[in-house]
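Worked problem 6 (solution included).
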Amino acid sequence: MQDYISANLPAIHFDQTRQFYEFLGFQCAYQSEQWMIIKKDSLILEFFHHPQLDPKASWFSACLRTQRMHDLFHDWQTLDWTKFPEAKLTEIESLDEIDMFCVIDPNGSLIRCIQLN
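Solution. The predicted structure is:
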């Protein structure tokens, strides 16, 4: 494996967090009592256990930069988001240099999905 940097986000409950990201097509690559790693193709997110986190006060975030942003959006838009009522998918915004949509996970973390124009 090549060197890389991975986002590290909080997880109040690993099981709920893993289920949400599996809903988005990720697979759990590693899990212990304090750490979890999930992957979807070349995308990797890591989570640390943070049971005291208030999801409404969370300021954690990560950027997912991809050339398949529109595909991800359309795939994720067709999912039944009522299974995770605390999670959210925003619409695509076209800004000057990027297109972007966001996912807010059950822990209140913001994932910005970005593609350069």
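Discussion: The chain is about 15% helix and 40% strand.
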